[in-house]
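Researcher: Before we compare anything, I want clean individual predictions. No alignment, no superposition, just each chain on its own. First chain goes here; please echo the sequence and then give the structure tokens.
Model: Echoing the first chain and its structure:
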Amino acid sequence: MKSNLKLPPGSHIHIVGVAGVGMSALAQLLVDLGFRVSGSDRFLDQGEPVPVLERLQAAGVELLPQDGRGIRADTACVAVSTAIENENPELVAARDHSVPVIHRATLLASRCAGFRVVAVSGTAGKTTVTGMIGWILDRIGLDPTVVNGGGVVNWSAANRVASVRKGAGEWWIVEADESDRSLLSFTSDVAVITNASKDHFDLDEVHRIFAQFAARSRGTVIVGPGLKTLPGLEGAEEAAGRTEVIDGSVFVVVGDLRIPVPLIGQHNGDNARMAIAVCRALGCALEDIAEALATFGGIERRLEVVGKEQGITVIDEYAHNPSKISAAWSSVAGSSSRIFGVWRPHGFGPLALMFDELVDAFTSICRKDDCLVLLPVFYAGGTAGGATSSAELAEALRARGVNVFAADDYDEVESRARDFLRAGDTLLVMGARDPGLPRFARKMCERKEDQGLTE
């Protein structure tokens, strides 16, 4: 894919799969930078009501069918993610019209040129850490540009994507994705690696990728606990301090200062440690960091409480790998008598790769009175497929004593949820990619005269 393009503001850029978390952020950024942006998505073609598309359209992105018509004579380039298959009609049209095709991360990295960059990666927590850093620097007055993999609740608006903050300062804070190795597109002044666990690759490969990412940093490399022992990360700086959870409240202790973290869960204390370490490395005073962090509203779909109905809390969560699922479930368990968990695998490949780890994770976190329901593997179209199914995962978990069901669709999940849930319980909806997950969570918060969450 070509990357040595000159793209003056006002150029037309077309984005394929614009509803994706990374692509929607790129679209918003390009609009902010003065480009003419159009985008297509299978969800749009399917008539799927995806809120991010409404926000993008309000921001000025032209939405078009994914049939090649977005590729014009004056199109400067087409932006894609790794998920876009080579025979997608948009890519066929780009080849027919000799329009360059550029990977999302390459295009984003090219926009960072001339600025100082904090690139945040890791197999869990990177979106929250990126959001925290961006929010703290915003409040302190450094006016950063932020490009994240999830919306910052504080920046939520109807006319733009909340994963992007338009700034005029020297610092750009970007989330760098390890899932397709695209983090290696970034050369940073501060590199951040939150943690390393098996997700899209075997663990040895994950370690190699992060070592390569660290080697591309021009300056400081900040890592989470235990990562300094990995090959290539020996010279990294481990985030200082420790996390404390007292009666459900989370604190980060750095020196003599105990800093409240306005989110639940031990893992969010660890995320805050990373963000604090980065902001200190940029020269911010610890007291100023603590004051700014106290007003952080969290990340959309990261333990996001979408509502409470009849004493039941409904939480929407992006967790899609074992470590994230474990962190989310454990965080909720402390304040919930029972959990009704809903999880949807986001792809056939990841489910097969992480199968054993998922069995171990769910077996460890699901309590005797909890209930887990698995939806079918999410399929967005294309040629992706696989033999491993949610039903197989349910069977393996049932053999380990987990109260689990494999559901055919959301109607079945809703029926089981309404039969199970009562006051004091939590409905925890988890998974990536499928826009039906947050929609389902919000639907379950709607009070109906003839059908509530409990009888």
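Researcher: Okay. Second chain, same rules.
Model: Second chain and its structure:
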Amino acid sequence: MKEIRQYNYHSPRKVAILSAILISFIFVVIDLSTSLTLNDFHLWSLLLGCLIIFSFSYFIIYNSLDKFIYARLKPIYKAIGKLDEMKKLKKKISKSEDVLEMVNQTVLEWRDKQQQKIAELQKMADYRREFLGNVSHELKTPIFNIQGYVLSLLDGGLDDPVITKKFLQRSEKSVDRMIAIVEDLEEISKFESGELILHEEVFDLLSLCREVVEFLEIKADTNNSQIIIKTGDYRKLPVKADNKRIRQVLINLVDNAIKYGNQTNGRIVISFYDFHDHYLVEISDNGIGIPKESVPRIFERFYRTDLSRSREKGGTGLGLAIVRHIIEAHRESITVRSKPNKGTTFSFTLKKGKG
């Protein structure tokens, strides 16, 4: 919350005027108290003297305050990197404005910005620390597995062809997992840095969904899941997007629904909704759902819930993070809603294409 403090300061001009009036008044009182006679000539000379003293006092006090204040303010503005603000302040000195209050507000605004930057840096430091810990944890398992297999082979396992083949095959799986993690991290890095360029074109989203379902059909059958595409009255759904990347999004989301959905009678539904110049795509499952406290973090790198995102299911833990980056790169949005023991629904939008 932004904090604003009010002070009853006067501008240098007001201070100079009040001081000059006070000096003039003192002059008049002294003159009248020492004068023996009071005539028209004396009154006019008194008035003229009062005017001269007022003008002279105002000029001296005003310029002295001006130099004093700005001599003190310049180091402050220089320290907070707002030296250009001094020029604006000098222009306002001629007006009856509370200069010190303006300085106070400038410093408070600078302080608020610094506190915000510190908070953001702290947040980034926490995120970096958590990210490095996650990367270390994800890579540690396959590395230790490979190390164990190699040591076993060196300790005599090479003499047994069956054990040799078995351990080499397991080592290959661990290497593949490490490669997948590195490739996914590299892809996310490209999205975040803006290096990855989308190749947008108009294509039929409905046909692409059918290709993805066909691609994952065997895996769905193995996990006792059924994938349903609700086409409604649509025969074609032309969208303008990167075909390859949207295919990646669909594969990740449907694969997610297969792995973490209902393992006895899984039902995965892909639905489409017409929203003016966009299509809304929803992918739902009837699994155990995502805990409420985990929903806001579900798109973070390596984040898995204790119940439905177990590492035993495989994957790199980066799939949903990649999905979010792809959708956001298309200048669209993706959301998730979930209920315990009811299932999870991922929704994202795509711009319509002319076709």
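Researcher: What stands out in the second chain?
Model: The chain is about 60% helix and 15% strand. Additionally, The helical segments are 12-34, 40-79, 85-92, 99-154, 161-193, 205-222, 243-260, 319-329.
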